[in-house]
Amino acid sequence: MNNYSQLTALTFGIQAFITLLVVLDPPGVAPIFLALVADKSPKQRIRLAWQAAGVSLILIVTFAIAGQAILGALHVSFSALQGAGGLLLLLIALELLTGKGQEETAEGSTNIAMVPLGTPLLAGPGAIVATMLFAQSASTPLHKASLAVAIVLVHVVIGLTLMFSTQIVRIIRESGVTLLARVAGLLSAAIAVEMIVASIKGFWPPSGG
């Protein structure tokens, strides 16, 4: 990331946009989003899509501005943050696989725009750390402005992706939604395991030869 300080503001912003878009991965989150909003009305689905993008935006901006201070004040390492996110996501994945998650969202007991969509799926440890590194590399006001624009544009893309993905629910019907929920649970579990394994490696890095 140190080389980024030598880039023009436009190039820096483009690289930040592409990197964050890949890390936040809105197409990868879409199946999980669809499984969670299947029982909602079209208006509610659109609202939840933009709420999820908004929650992620708030978290990403917060950590871009004060991430180091927050983690330092709490004495929390990145590996611990990654492990906690993985365990939380694994719990949600198990609920999706068993159908329990859908029952809870139908009863309105959880806000899926916050958890698991806003975090840890979108604003997860990887996205937070990538943003913090870009923020540290933004050495001039123009670089900081281009990073801010990149972060906002990424979340506009996320909101649009999730909003338009809701059209699929009309096509696949109830049986398709059930299948989608199980697939989403499997994908979530796989992502969670990757996060937990990465966390363990962070605490006990393999000895290099």
Mean pLDDT level: 84
Helix/strand order, N-terminal first: HHHHHHHHH
Query: Into which percentage range does the β-strand content fall?
Result: under 5%
Tally of distinct domains: 1
DSSP helical segment count: 9
Terminal CA distance: 26 Å
Q: Which segments are poorly predicted (pLDDT under 50) over 5 or more consecutive residues? A: none
The largest pleated sheet is described as:
none
Q: Structural class from helices and strands?
A: mainly alpha
Mass-distribution shape: globular
What does this 3D model show about the protein?
The chain is mainly alpha-helical. It has one domain (28-201). The chain has helices at 9-24, 26-37, 42-74, 78-98, 100-106, 113-122, 125-137, 141-165, 167-203. The two termini are 26 Å apart. The mean pLDDT is 84.
What are the defining features of this structure?
single chain; 209 residues; mainly alpha; 9 helices; 83% helix; globular
Task: Summarize, please.
By secondary structure, this protein is mainly alpha-helical.
SSE layout and pairings?
Layout: H1 9-24, H2 26-37, H3 42-74, H4 78-98, H5 100-106, H6 113-122, H7 125-137, H8 141-165, H9 167-203
